[in-house]
Design brief:
- It is a single chain.
- By secondary structure, the chain is an alpha/beta fold.
- It folds into 3 domains: 62 residues, no CATH class; 145 residues, Immunoglobulin-like, CATH 2.60.40; 146 residues, Immunoglobulin-like (Sandwich), CATH 2.60.40.
- 21% of the residues lie in helices and 30% in strands.
- It has a 10-stranded mixed β-sheet, with helices on one face. The chain has a 5-stranded mixed β-sheet with strand order 13-20-19-15-17, with no helix packed on it.
- A hairpin with a 2-residue loop joins strand 11 and strand 12.
């Protein structure tokens, strides 16, 4: 296990969070700690021989910074295929043991947005939207009394961003993503001096194994679902992404395929096309034309007309570049929570009937930049 020793200047810069120009409590505590260390050093110098003093000072240099500031650990957030179509919604690894005062730095490795969030009551009763989360800049400290999250603006959740949390209290703390309900993990914080069961190399291997297992779809279920949609379904049925939830003792992860499976089809005038979201976690939209404004995730027109089966259904009579037809977000309904009203059902299907010939392009408003686009060619 690699442990890094931070010098005083780095610690003072990281712990100085006062914006009004006054001295922070962290700086005062830090100065007190250094005063104590200097007093101990003076006492040792007065009582020990020069050779013993050298050994004691060396031990102090090696041990004291680690006791006060802990070790540094590293993990990643998410994984993706080369074409970005397969997204592993996961903390890699999703279970870590550390000591109190240790820090973990998570790096976002994908183009799909994620958060690193630790919630406590009352926030734990309902996950806030990512932009309403209790943001705390990195490096953050967490003692189980106040929530911390890597949210703040879009830059804070973008690919390549790092978020560091130092844990000041022992216990087991749940890690969640505010974008993906079934993306969780756990950090076990042990008392100082208790040897963690694994080192950084172990976690690196575990992260690589979990990434490979998720992206390769080892049990073949997503491949089978895609083949069924492609080969067995009528030409007018399109799958709007597929997904699969998996679990470890540390939490849950999801593989989501961000693609319209059999998304480029050819039909005849007056034919009806149906899109179905088969992903248990990730929402998608079917949007023709510009994104609805000001909120791109809402249906257009709103409210959407429903057909006799209760499925949102639009009739398309024009090919104007300014016309917008959108399903809004198609997604599986979240599971009901204890002691709360039943969660209202949403829509997972969308239909459109095309009354004129032409080539109609459509996209998912959330994942078009990752390649989730399609076309309907009408003869």
């Amino acid at each position: 296990m690699q442990r890094s020793v931070l010098n005083r200047a780095a610690i003072e810069a990281a712990d100085t969070t006062e914006v009004s120009g006054r001295v922070t409590a962290d700086e005062v505590n830090l100065d007190r700690i250094h005063n104590r260390i200097r007093k101990v050093g003076a006492f040792v110098a007065a009582t020990l021989s020069p050779s013993s003093l050298r050994w004691m000072l060396l031990l102090t240099v090696l041990v004291v910074p680690q006791v006060l500031w802990g070790a540094d650990w590293f993990a990643t957030v998410g994984a993706q295929s080369n074409d970005k179509g397969h997204q592993a919604l996961a903390y890699l690894p999703n279970e870590i043991w550390i000591n109190v005062n240790d820090s973990i730095t998570w790096t976002i490795n994908v183009d799909e947005p994620h958060t690193v969030t630790f919630l406590v009551s009352p926030e734990a009763d309902a996950r806030p939207l990512f932009f309403l989360a209790p943001f705390k800049p990195s490096p953050a400290t967490f003692d189980g009394s106040k929530s911390v999250s890597s949210t703040g603006d879009l830059a804070s959740i973008a690919k390549g961003n790092k978020y560091t949390v130092q844990f000041l209290k022992t216990g087991d703390f749940k890690l969640v993503c505010l974008f993906h309900n079934n993306m969780t993990g756990v950090v076990h914080v042990l008392a100082a001096g208790v040897p963690p069961p694994h080192d950084q190399a172990f976690y690196d291997r575990q992260a690589a194994d979990q990434q490979r297992d998720l992206l390769s779809d080892r049990d073949g279920r997503l491949v089978a679902a895609g083949q069924q949609s492609c080969c067995a379904a009528p030409d007018s049925l399109i799958t709007v992404g597929v997904g699969e939830i998996s679990a470890t003792p540390g939490g849950t992860s999801t593989l989501s395929v961000l693609r319209f499976i059999k998304g480029n089809i050819t039909i005849r005038v007056n034919d009806t096309v149906e899109w179905t979201n088969r992903d248990p976690v990730t929402p998608h939209s079917v949007t023709f034309g510009p994104d609805p404004s000001p909120d791109p995730t809402v249906p257009s027109p709103s409210p959407l007309p429903l057909d006799a089966e209760g499925v949102p259904h639009v009739d398309i009579y024009s090919l104007s570049p300014t016309d917008t037809f959108s399903s809004g977000l198609l997604m599986a309904t979240l599971q009901d929570q204890t002691f709360k009203p039943q969660t209202p059902l949403g829509y997972t299907r969308f239909r459109a009937t095309f009354h004129i010939p032409g080539v109609f392009s459509y996209h998912c408003v959330l994942h078009d930049t990752l390649g989730m686009i399609g076309t309907v060619t009408v003869h």
